[in-house]
Amino acid sequence: MPEDPDTRPTILIVEDIVFIRMMTEDYFANAGFRTLSARTTAEAIVLLETDPTIRYLFADIHLPGGEDGQKLAATARKRWPPVKIILTSADMPADQVRLPVRGLFVPKPYSLDRVRQAFETMP
């Protein structure tokens, strides 16, 4: 008998600091999400290209590899318009963040409850 498809919403977490990424993955998994994670923009793009179930993108702005979360967010908005996007940073003022249409910025340190609630109320 075939297995039931995983119907949990899928979130892609893009964070280069391992313990923050793991903590965020654990939080969202316990909140009922299917979690995927990446350390760089390039890894995130591969996941977005290969997994059409991704509905949420939570990305740090400062990432290794030459691309940042703002460019990732712009690419995601253009190529995968339904994906809900939240960017975060510890050292970038909100008024300097370039967000895509319908994107949000949540500064670090953040409450993961607040991030989840923001995703739930996004159009």
TrEMBL record:
SUPFAM superfamilies: CheY-like. Residues 10-123 form the Response regulatory domain. Pfam families: Response_reg. Keywords: Phosphoprotein. The modification 4-aspartylphosphate is found at D60. PROSITE patterns: RESPONSE_REGULATORY. InterPro entries: Bact_response_regulator, CheY-like_superfamily, Sig_transdc_resp-reg_receiver. One of its GO terms (biological process) is phosphorelay signal transduction system. This is Response regulator. It comes from Gluconobacter potus.
